[in-house]
Write a structure and sequence with these properties.
single chain, five-stranded parallel beta sheet, alpha/beta
Length: 267
C-alpha cells in the first residue's frame, strides 16, 4: 500500500493529496464515510471520481446515473486535457478562496467547481456534435447548481467561480486562463442577433459579484471589474472599471488580480 501511494504521489500529486485528505476526513467525521468512500476513495483517479460526481448530481428521472457516467468516463478518456483542467481549477480554488482548506472540499461541497466540471463535459459533447445531449447537461447543471453556461462557450484553465450562484455565460463567450468570478456574474449579449455577440474575457481577470459584461467586447488581461458594474465597452489590460455603465477608475492594483482577489477600490 505504501509503495502504491508513493507511485501515485509521484505521477499525480493532486490526486494523492485528495486521497490523503479523504482518509483523514473519514477519521474525523465517520458519518461522512460512505459519501467520501463512494465519491473519492473508491476511485482509481480524479477523472473517475469526477465522472461519478457528475452522474450523481445531474441524474434525474429523465436520465439515469449509468448513462451520464458512461459518457462522462468517455469524455475524460477521450480528452486528457479535461482532467488537467479540472486539476488546475481545483488548485485555483484552494489558492484563492480563504474558505477552502483542502482539495476535497470543492469536489464534494463547492457547487461552483462542480458546475464548471459539468460544463467541461457538456463542451466536450458539443464539440463532438452531440448538441442535444450537451443542452441536456446545460439544463441539469443550471437546475442542480444554479449556474447556466452554454456548452459552446470556451473557458480556459485555472478558473474559479466563487459561490457561483446565478452565473450566466452565453454561447459565444470566451473566458481565458486563471480567471476568477463571483456570484451573479453575467457574460451576456445585447440583442437577439445570432452571430458573435458575447464578451471575450482575457487571462487573469477578476470579475466582482453581480457584474454584467454585455456584448462582443474585450476585457483585457489582468483587469478588474468591480462588483455591480455593467460593462458595455472594451476594457484595456491591467485596468479597473466600475459603475453603470462602467468606466476606468484606475489601475488593476496588482499584477494578478484574479489570484490576489483584492476587490477594494483605492484612490
Amino acid at each position: 500500500m505504501t509503495e502504491r501511494k508513493a507511485r501515485i504521489a509521484a505521477v499525480d500529486p493532486v490526486w494523492s493529496r485528495i486521497c490523503d485528505e479523504a482518509r483523514v476526513a473519514v477519521q474525523d467525521e465517520p458519518l461522512l464515510g460512505g459519501l467520501i468512500h463512494s465519491g473519492l476513495l473508491h476511485h482509481a483517479s480524479l477523472e473517475r471520481a469526477l465522472a461519478y460526481r457528475f452522474s450523481l448530481k445531474l441524474a434525474s428521472g429523465e436520465m439515469s446515473e449509468q448513462i451520464l457516467r458512461e459518457f462522462a468516463d468517455e469524455a475524460y478518456e477521450d480528452e486528457p486535457d479535461l482532467g488537467q483542467a479540472a486539476r488546475a481549477d481545483l488548485v485555483a480554488v484552494q489558492d484563492r478562496d480563504p474558505a477552502c482548506h483542502r482539495y476535497l472540499q470543492p469536489i464534494l461541497f463547492f457547487k461552483g467547481y462542480q458546475a464548471l466540471q459539468a460544463y467541461r463535459i457538456g463542451h466536450w459533447l458539443w464539440r463532438k456534435g452531440r448538441q442535444d445531449m450537451a443542452y441536456f447537461v446545460q439544463m441539469r447543471t443550471s437546475e442542480a447548481f444554479g449556474v447556466d453556461i452554454h456548452p459552446a462557450a470556451r473557458i480556459g484553465r485555472g478558473v474559479m467561480f466563487d459561490h457561483a450562484h446565478s452565473i450566466v455565460i452565453g454561447e459565444t463567450a470566451v473566458v481565458g486562463d486563471n480567471v476568477s468570478m463571483l456570484h451573479s456574474v453575467t457574460l451576456g449579449g445585447t440583442g437577439k442577433q445570432e452571430q458573435d455577440r458575447h464578451p471575450k474575457i482575457g487571462n487573469g481577470v477578476l470579475i466582482g459579484a453581480g457584474a454584467k459584461v454585455l456584448g462582443n467586447i474585450r476585457v483585457g488581461d489582468n483587469s478588474r471589474i468591480a462588483a455591480g458594474s455593467v460593462v458595455l465597452e472594451d476594457v484595456p489590460c491591467c485596468k479597473t472599471v466600475a459603475g453603470v455603465p462602467a468606466r476606468i477608475v484606475g489601475e488593476a492594483g496588482c499584477e494578478h488580480p484574479a489570484t490576489e482577489m483584492d476587490q477594494l477600490l483605492r484612490k
